[in-house]
Amino acid sequence: MKQMTSLRILLTASILASTTAAFANVTLPALITDNMVLQQKANAALWGWADPGEAITVSASWAKTPVKAVADAQGNWLVRVPTTKAGGPYTLTIQGKNTLKISNVLLGEVWLCSGQSNMAFPVTKRPNSGSYTGIINAEEVIPKANYPTIRMFTVQTKTGDTPQSDVQGNWVACSPQTVGDFSAVAYFFAKEVQEKTHFPIGLIHSSWGGTPAESWTRKEVLEQDPDLQPILARYERGLTTIEQDRETYKAQLAAYQQEKAANPNTPRMPPREPVGPTSNKSPYKLYNAMIHPLVPYTLKGVIWYQGESNVDRAYQYRKLFPAMIASWRADWKQPDLPFYFVQIAPHRTGNPELREAQLLTMQTVPRTGMAVITDWGDSLDIHPRNKEVVGHRLALWALAKEYGSKNLVYSGPIYHDMKVENGKVRLNFEYVDGGLVAQGGPLRQFAIAGPDSVFVPAQAKIEGKSVVVWSDQVKQPVAVRFAWREVPKPNFFNAAGLPATPFRTDKWRTSTQGKL
Questions:
Q1: Buried b (16+ CB within 10 A) or exposed e, 471-488
Q2: Largest Cα–Cα separation, the chain
Q3: Exposure string (b/e) for 420-455, b if CB count within 10 Å is 16 or more?
Q4: What residues have CB less than 8 Å from 360, skipping those under 6 apart?
Q5: Which end of the chain has the least Cβ crowding within 10 Å, N or C?
Q6: Interatomic CA distance for residues 131 and 138, integer angstroms
Q7: Is residue 467 within 8 Å of 436, Cβ to Cβ?
Q8: What does DSSP say about strands 201-207 and 147-154: parallel, antiparallel, or unpaired?
Q9: CB atoms within 10 A of CB 6
């Protein structure tokens, strides 16, 4: 018995000693490691964990004076390291009871790249993915992708019931050997920004296919807004019937697969899997695991490509999307954090109301911008493969607004106001740089309505900086809509070749309004 007791004491002492030793060492989040990019000309956040009360010293090879901190009662520490202009490579040394050295650090521009599958879509085809078929010009792009100062940190996909402290991933320099796994939109965005500015670019890529915006939104934001509370209520109700719903889903999926085998071009979409407690579609759980751990890494801005998974409740997106943006800005304590996003592409599952919600976000939320890609959609493929045009149009916003590129046209025409003139409607636009253009023939996809709210196809022509719209069927026009459909194929551009966003002049009730 004495031998057993002595053995237990020795084992306990050994475990305590190893635990204490592990905790005593200064540790860092996955983001802070070799090959990282820190935001230039900023007070860049660096943080980690140590013993409570442990003194931490951070020395940067570009700075003469180290920065010091003391770990709090929970062992957390944070410093703000002043960074100089873009350059490198540099080293960072973090010293507490142990010493950590981080090599090949660059100072440059750091962008968070997030959203769903169109942001996750890689440069090269991903085997057995079905959806990720690679960009249309991969064979041309990959051999030329020798940009060692463009670096991407890809966050491993994960859900979390509560806010997490760290992620999994590592910084990878861009080369022909690595670029295939990069987010294609993020890569093309970074490539163009770097070619114009010559700054190193750090891309933190955190996205997951098939996910709604509420998955990326902090729980408290959803709880505190009456218009967003139904998201949580719907999720909680679904948990009570999840087993039954899964059985129903299996039957529906089998029927769909049988139909698709008989008719590969069936227009019917596959059934949606029920949202369980570990689903990536659960509200707030991707925020917990894939966004919260990135705070407070200092950013230049955010690029975002998402919205397809919110088309069923597009009207709600008017409130949800701006709320998510505001909460991210609050988390990072960067109230003016630039946030540039992509309007969803034409697709048979699309919804013009979602595009309108995105347009309204751009028009009402400061320091936001929207890349319109109605000219590059695919009615049968929700993942348009020309990601270069997407990255380019996002880069136009960043270059014009963040990097001082003067006389750069960064947006297509955006509806401003209307006036009824002798049975016709004159529409005025912003962003008409160089004039308005109808590509390939007369303007198309305009519709007009009278007081009965019935829209009919309309004729339209450009007159200077305006568009005049009319129809012989509507003698008293009161409203106009443009490209207001699931799969718009408009030909309305400005002289810079940027497409006009779909819009409507009316405020009549829409199909998803009131849908919770």
A1: beebeebbbbbbbbbebb
A2: 105
A3: eeeebbbbebebbbeebbbeeeebbbbbbbbeeeeb
A4: 318
A5: N
A6: 16
A7: yes
A8: parallel
A9: 10
pLDDT in tens, 298-333: 999 999 999 999 999 999 999 999 999 999 999 999
Res 282 pLDDT > 80: yes
What single letter denotes the amino acid at residue 360? Answer: L
Strand 201-207 to strand 339-342: parallel, antiparallel, or no bridges (unpaired)? unpaired
Residue indicated by tokens 């005593």? 24
Q: Which residues contact 470 (CB under 8 A, 6 or more apart)?
A: 423, 424, 425, 448, 458, 459, 460, 477
Token digits of residue 258: 């049988």
CB 174 within 8 A of CB 140: no
Partners of 481 in the beta sheet?
447, 504
Structure tokens at 329: 């800005």
Mean pLDDT of the chain: 94
Between strands 414-421 and 466-470, the pairing is unpaired
Q: Decide: 411 and 394 in contact? Cβ < 8 Å.
A: no
* DSSP summary character for residue 313: G
Q: Which residues contact 120 (CB under 8 A, 6 or more apart)?
A: 132, 183, 205, 207, 208, 209
**pLDDT tens digit sequence for 472-506:** 999 999 999 999 999 999 999 999 999 999 999 99
Distance CA 264, CA 258 (A): 10
